[in-house]
UniProtKB/TrEMBL annotation:
Nucleoside triphosphate pyrophosphatase that hydrolyzes dTTP and UTP. May have a dual role in cell division arrest and in preventing the incorporation of modified nucleotides into cellular nucleic acids. InterPro entries: ITPase-like_fam, Maf-like. It is found in: Cytoplasm. Pfam families: Maf (PF02545). The gene is maf. This is dTTP/UTP pyrophosphatase. GO terms for biological process: nucleotide metabolic process. It comes from Falsiroseomonas algicola. Its main location: cytoplasm. The active site is at D74 (proton acceptor). Belongs to the Maf family. YhdE subfamily.
Length: 195
């Protein structure tokens, strides 16, 4: 008789991550957001931040659910060495758009999967994007839409901002918030997702 698979817990409050998991037929048994300090450390680069926060989230939730398989992710938008968090207000969202206008940037999602036996698997997935040069009217319209709220970097690629993307190299789902190919690999490696 096969061993029953452990409950899968998603350590995230993001509705986008739940939607993305559903696309590959994965429905977590529980959703338990991690309450951690997400402040970047001094001189911490975007990729390192994404990886560190994913591990911290997974560890926090695994401590509460030791018999579960815990999946955590954190998505960071970076322009060079600078991290663009979720904008605090419309003015900051406008500043972010002005910074991204006509430039390339990177979106990194750190993934961490902790098994009931404590074994960890992790990945950092990077997607490179280039935005068109945005007009003042485009930026004002986007900020007025409110889509920047709660979004790293101040935009959501799965909505209106996709029209700004002139170049994308890597995983589109990564930019939404969860790289599906790598997530499926981690779940298969843990024996949770088959085939």
């Amino acid at each position: 008789m096969p061993t029953p698979r452990p409950p899968l817990v998603l350590a995230s409050a993001s509705p986008r991550r739940l939607e993305l998991l559903a696309r590959i037929g994965v429905v977590p048994d529980r959703v338990l957001p991690a309450d951690i300090d997400e402040t970047p450390r001094k001189a911490e680069l975007p990729r390192a931040l994404a990886g560190r926060l994913a591990v911290a989230k997974a560890e926090a939730v695994a401590a509460q659910c030791p018999d579960c398989l815990v999946l955590a992710a954190d998505t960071v938008v970076g322009v060079g060495r600078r991290v663009l968090n979720k904008p605090a207000d419309a003015a900051e969202a406008a500043k972010f758009l002005a910074l991204l206008s006509g430039r390339r940037h990177r979106v990194t999602t750190g993934l961490c999967l902790i098994r009931p036996d404590g074994k960890r698997s992790r990945r950092e997935v990077v997607t490179i994007l280039g935005f068109q040069r945005l007009t003042a009217a485009q930026m004002e319209d986007y900020v007025a839409s409110g889509e920047w709220q709660g979004a790293a970097g101040g935009y959501q690629i799965q909505k209106r901002a996709e029209a700004f993307v002139r170049f994308l190299s890597g995983s589109h789902s990564n930019v939404v918030g969860l790289p599906l190919f790598e997530t499926a690999q981690l779940l298969r490696g843990a024996g949770w997702l088959t085939p």
